[in-house]
Structure formats: structure tokens, C-alpha cells
Design a protein that fits this description.
The strands form 2 sheets. The protein has a 15-stranded antiparallel β-sheet that branches. It has a two-stranded antiparallel sheet with strand order 6-7. 18% of the residues lie in helices and 30% in strands. It is globular. The protein is α+β, with helices and mostly antiparallel strands. A hairpin with a 7-residue loop joins strand 14 (242-249) and strand 15 (257-260). The chain has 4 helices and 17 strands.
């Protein structure tokens, strides 16, 4: 099991979220340009929900009920403790924390001339261009000619906040960023998680900019002594980008909560073999909900910060719901598809035979 060593438990318990309710200009904040290329060191809270495929639900149900204490089975609202609903097969993480998330950013450039590669960050610099990311469908960029910067998640390791005796405090459940290596052989670097910050249509860089990231992460579900998985934790990855977005950035690093903006839930698959329990690349489920809160501190009241984060996420859930599952054909629909394929093949065969007869007759 991997333990996050960035922040001591006392620092975690003190972590808090400072929420900005109104846009910066309404609070009298002075407009300012985007800062120069650098790395932002900040803090994070996170939460996710996965729809587990039916073939893996018995395994996850045993895992959830062997927790000390067992995970709740009612998942109406998001809570700091997480839950697993055996009826719907939805696994919700506890609130997760990282005491030192690193976000790299580039110099500002024009959103037309800056579509090419620009160097992001200083400690672990990477080139990021518009071709590296997908823009969320709901992202409303400003008119041509406004400023933007490219960004990337460099290092993020969010761990459990010590809510259960079964999982060590700060056990890392979510990892992302190109400065990190994979948890499984051959331990290659994790994929680039690129993004962008764009100025408002009103012309100011800051405040009230908007931002998004394309996130490729490892999700780690720890093995329990009472539910052994042959000495391995369950490591899941997403090959399709998880799109997260926020439309109200007043400063960098911002004090905001990023929420998912994909049209459909994002598939998560096993990162390595652990036969006969699971096979690398097999579909474990779909991530239907994800939230990432940035910049928690200065520390005063940890529980208040967590409550605020959960209030935002629960409101998002009430307003927009979870990402829907991709359309999976039913048995009847599969039957119709097979029928159409066979009918097309039969018609093609008839046409070929008729042409042969005509050729022979000539």
C-alpha cells in the first residue's frame, strides 16, 4: 500500500476550503494580467463515483462490507465517508486530500496565435498545445484575440483522510500528473493532463477567467487483509480523458471546485493482470461523477472546508446529475443488429450469384 507523504496527518485535519461566492470584480478585485510561466503549489480535495460492472460487484461488495466500519450502503448524498450501493453497483469514494498539488502553467499568449506548443511549468516542464486536449462542450471561450495560458496537472496524489481503520490514513486513492510514474510495471510516466485558462469576454485576464483540464488518472482501491487480492491493490486507469471545468477563476492558483463535463461516463479499466481475479484492460466500470477542489487553506476548520466542498458537489449532483452511461445495446437490439448483418450478407451473395449467371449467359 502506498502512503501519501506530502502532508502530515495534523496538516490534513487542519486543511480547509476558502470558497469564493461572488465574482472577483463584484468584490472590488483589481483586474490583473495572467502571471508568467511557473508552477503553482496548492492543496486539493476530491471525490469520485464509479458504476461497477456486474461481474465485479460481488468482489466490491465483499470489500465494502469488510471495511471497519463497513461502508454505508445508501448513497443518496455525497459524504466524507464514501459508500457502496450493492443494488445499483455504485462505489463512491470518501473525500480525498492532497497537501501539495502541483499545477504547471505557461506564459500568456493570444488564443489564435497560441494554438501551437507552449512550455508549461518550470520544475517538470512539458510542451502543451491545443492539439493535446479536448475542449468541453460547455466551455464558452471568449472572442478571438483574448489571452489564454496552457496548463497541466504536474503532481497530484490524493489520499484518504483517516476515516476507517481498514485503510491507512493518507493511503493514495487517486494519482495524476506527468511528474509521477505508474504504480504498476513498467512504471512509465503517467499521461499528460493538459488544460487551459482563458480570459473573460470582457477583456480582463483575471478575475473571472474560465478553465478546464483533461485528466488521466490512476484510481487505487486497496486490498484488505480480510479480502485478499493475491497481494495486489486494484489499480484502475481511464484511457478517455475525464473533462473537468470551472468558469469562475479569480486568481491563480484559484479557490474553486472543478466538476465533470463529459457527455457520457468515462470507462475505467484494470491497469495490470491479476489472474484469475481480473485481466489488464478489462472494463471495471464507468466513472459517473468527479469533483476536484483546489486551494484549501490557510488551515482553520477542516470539517467546515469539507462540508463546503461536499455542499458544492451535492448541489452539482442535484442540478446536473451524474454522467450518463454510454448506450449499451440490449439483447433484442443485438439480435436486430445480427439480423441486419446476416440480411446484408445474404443480399450481397444473391447479387454476386446473379452477376455470375449473367456473365455465363453472355
Amino acid at each position: 500500500m502506498k502512503l501519501c507523504n506530502k502532508q502530515t496527518l495534523s496538516g490534513v485535519i487542519l486543511g480547509t476550503l476558502l470558497l469564493v461566492v461572488s465574482p472577483g470584480l463584484l468584490q472590488g478585485q483589481t483586474p490583473e494580467p495572467f502571471p508568467a510561466q511557473d508552477d503553482d503549489y496548492t492543496t486539493s480535495l476530491g471525490i469520485f463515483r464509479i458504476y461497477v460492472m456486474k461481474s465485479f460487484r460481488p468482489m466490491i461488495n465483499d470489500w465494502a462490507q469488510n471495511m471497519v466500519p463497513p461502508l454505508p450502503t445508501v448513497c443518496t448524498d455525497l459524504t466524507r465517508y464514501g459508500c457502496y450501493d450493492p443494488v445499483t453497483g455504485k462505489l463512491t469514494s470518501p473525500v480525498l486530500y492532497d497537501g501539495e498539488t502541483i499545477i504547471g502553467r505557461s506564459n500568456a499568449h493570444d488564443d489564435v496565435t497560441g494554438e501551437g506548443a507552449s512550455q508549461v511549468g518550470l520544475a517538470f516542464p512539458r510542451n502543451v498545445s491545443d492539439a493535446d486536449f479536448k475542449v468541453p462542450a460547455t466551455f464558452e471561450g471568449p472572442p478571438d484575440g483574448h489571452h489564454e495560458i496552457h496548463t497541466a496537472v504536474v503532481d497530484m496524489e490524493m489520499g484518504v483522510l483517516g476515516i476507517t481503520k481498514s485503510i491507512p490514513t493518507l493511503f493514495v486513492m487517486v494519482r495524476a500528473g506527468h511528474a509521477l510514474s505508474s504504480s504498476v510495471p513498467p512504471f512509465s510516466p503517467l499521461p499528460l493532463c493538459p488544460g487551459e485558462v482563458e480570459a473573460t469576454p470582457g477583456g480582463n485576464d483575471l478575475p473571472d477567467a474560465e478553465s478546464f483540464f483533461n485528466v488521466y488518472a490512476e484510481v487505487i482501491i486497496p486490498e484488505l487483509p480480510s479480502v485478499p487480492w493475491q497481494g495486489k491493490d486494484m489499480v484502475l486507469v481511464n484511457s478517455k480523458a475525464l473533462l473537468i471545468q470551472n468558469k469562475d477563476l479569480d486568481t491563480l492558483p484559484p479557490v474553486v471546485v472543478y466538476t465533470h463535463e463529459n457527455s457520457f461516463a468515462v470507462p475505467v479499466r484494470f491497469a495490470e493482470d491479476n489472474l484469475p481475479l481480473w485481466k489488464k484492460g478489462a472494463l471495471f466500470g464507468y466513472m459517473t461523477l468527479a469533483g476536484h477542489g483546489l486551494r484549501y487553506g490557510p488551515p482553520k476548520d477542516a470539517q467546515a472546508g469539507i462540508d463546503d466542498f461536499l455542499a458544492i458537489m451535492n448541489q452539482h449532483l442535484a442540478d446536473k446529475g451524474e454522467m450518463p452511461l454510454p448506450k449499451i445495446p440490449t439483447l433484442t437490439e443485438w439480435g436486430m443488429i445480427l439480423f441486419c448483418v446476416l440480411l446484408f450478407g445474404w443480399m450481397a451473395l444473391v447479387i454476386v450469384r446473379r452477376r455470375r449467371r449473367v456473365t455465363v449467359g453472355m
